[in-house]
Every structure is written in C-alpha cells, then in structure tokens.
Write a structure and sequence with these properties.
Elements lengths: L25 H15 L10 H24 L1 H8 L20
Length: about 100
Amino acid sequence: MARSEGTPYAGSQGLFQPDARVRFGPRRVWLTTIVALVLAHPAPAEAYLDPGTGSMLLQAVAAAFIGGLFTLKLYWRRVKAYLARPGRGEPSQPVENPQDGAS
C-alpha cells in the first residue's frame, strides 16, 4: 500500500506526521544525560562467588547438553522419517536416458 502525502504513519491516530519534527530542548537533554549517568553508575555488590558456584554453573551446562541429547533421542525416528521422505534429494521416478534404448 502506498502512503499519500498527508496520511499519518500510525493509521487514524495521527501520531507521526511526515513533516513533524522531534525537538529536544536543553532541559530535556540534561535530564536524559543525568538519568543515563545515574543508571550507568555501578553500585557495590558486596558478593562472593565461591568455587561451588562455578561447579553449579558447569553442572547446569552439562545438564542442558545431556537434556538436548535425550530430546534428540526421543524424536530421532521422526527426524529420520522427515529426512527420508520421497522428493528430498532423489527424484521420485528414475530419469530415462533417450540414448539407452534407441539403437
């Protein structure tokens, strides 16, 4: 659908007119800058990660991998049946060479 000159972008709401300009005053820029700096400042965590945490993360990764293998095992027949469908890779009827029987 082509958009005519006077139609708004957001349908009947008229939110974004093609000739509308977004104006940022100096007050808004300062407020945005201050909020961004406050949010970007890291707070002290005062946390300790002991070796058990690393072990637990390694265990979670191993469990996800083994769970994926188990899921693949459950659906392996469906995957093989999907890949072995006729029409995938091989033609359904053999193609005859016209020179074979024309002697």
